[in-house]
Write a structure and sequence with these properties.
elongated, two-stranded antiparallel ribbon, alpha+beta, 9 helices, disordered C terminus, 5 helical Cullin repeat like, ubl conjugation pathway, four-stranded antiparallel beta sheet
């Protein structure tokens, strides 16, 4: 993705929409699809975190919020069309709620960079504007992480906008269940936030590196191993090869064509240095792409399955 191009809602929707739909419908999402969604969201938010002039984080946040709201509204309409109160309550809201929690937990992992970096930064900026008296009434809002956004939209669409379609006692009970899920999630963030922040920060900030992450429930391990040095080694070797090639061509040209003059030697060396620097700069600044694979679990440890996430260089943005 070109950081100089202005991001659009249509662009972001086309990038993340298909995987969002599969996740909400609990269709099988491959590791490759999950990693691509994670990378795309991270790349949009990275524009803001690295102070690019275009606000990519706001665009992907808006697309996700709109999608969640529209999906929940459609689900509510579908459930409310069922003929009996029992079907609307049990077959509809109860079963749909259990599935929805699974998809919300999955998407919360995919939007981790937005949750841990972009959302807090925006909320801090809003608080600062409020202190300075620069905030307008319509700007007084709190940015939500992905899971809380899903739960809040579900509560409003399923219970607050359809009060007359199920009994009051059932509505109050199930609404309280959603609110409890939000509370538990926010409490968990307070406990594991610093640990998760360190891991995601390593993923986000390193142009290239290796991060081993263990997903255990909604928490992550904090072991990271940065391989940025290896990338510099590759750049150095590549540059040395180009400089040596330019020097050799310059020497041959000097002896064969220019009667021992040194200018071809300097020219060849300069061209080699320029080519080496250009390739290194492109390699180091190029956006990263996440690839994942399952890590075998040792039988004697009884540990839960983990994912090994390798942060690698992505293909050049077009």
């Amino acid at each position: 993705m070109d950081s100089s191009a202005k991001p659009t809602v249509e662009e972001a929707s086309a990038s993340i929409g298909p995987t969002l739909e599969k996740a909400h419908l609990l269709e099988r999402v491959s590791i490759a699809e999950f990693m691509m969604l994670y990378t795309t969201v991270s790349d949009y938010c990275k524009r803001d975190l690295l102070n690019f002039p275009n606000n990519g984080g706001a665009v992907v946040y808006k697309v996700f919020a709109q999608y969640v709201r529209e999906f929940d509204s459609q689900q509510a309409a579908k459930i409310n069309s069922l003929p009996t109160d029992e079907m609307r309550l049990v077959d509809g809201r109860r079963n749909a709620w259990e599935n929805y929690r699974k998809s919300a937990s999955f998407l919360n992992q995919a939007f981790r960079v937005m949750n841990q970096h972009w959302v807090p930064r925006c909320n801090d900026a809003m608080k600062e504007k409020a202190k300075q008296g620069q905030e307008s009434p319509e700007q007084k809002k709190t940015y939500l992480d992905a899971y809380t956004m899903c739960m809040t939209a579900w509560k409003e669409e399923m219970f607050e906008k359809t009060k007359n379609l199920i009994s009051n006692s059932a509505r109050v009970s199930m609404k309280a269940e959603v609110e409890q899920a939000i509370t538990e999630h926010l409490n968990a963030l307070q406990i594991s936030g610093a640990q998760e922040l360190a891991v995601v920060g390593a993923m986000l900030c390193a142009p290239s590196g290796r991060v081993d992450v263990a997903f255990v429930g909604s928490k992550m391990g904090d072991r990271s191993e940065n391989e940025l040095g290896q990338k510099f080694d590759r750049c150095f070797a590549d540059s040395l090869l180009k400089i040596s090639g330019g020097l050799a061509i310059g020497i041959i040209a000097s002896v064969a064509l220019f009667k021992g003059r040194t200018s071809p030697i300097w020219l060849g060396t300069g061209v080699g240095i320029g080519m080496g620097w250009s390739n290194c700069r492109h390699d180091l600044q190029n956006p990263f792409l996440l690839h994942g694979k399952k890590v075998p679990v040792s039988a004697d440890t009884g540990a839960k399955p983990a994912y090994n996430i390798v942060v690698e260089q992505a293909a050049p943005s077009k």
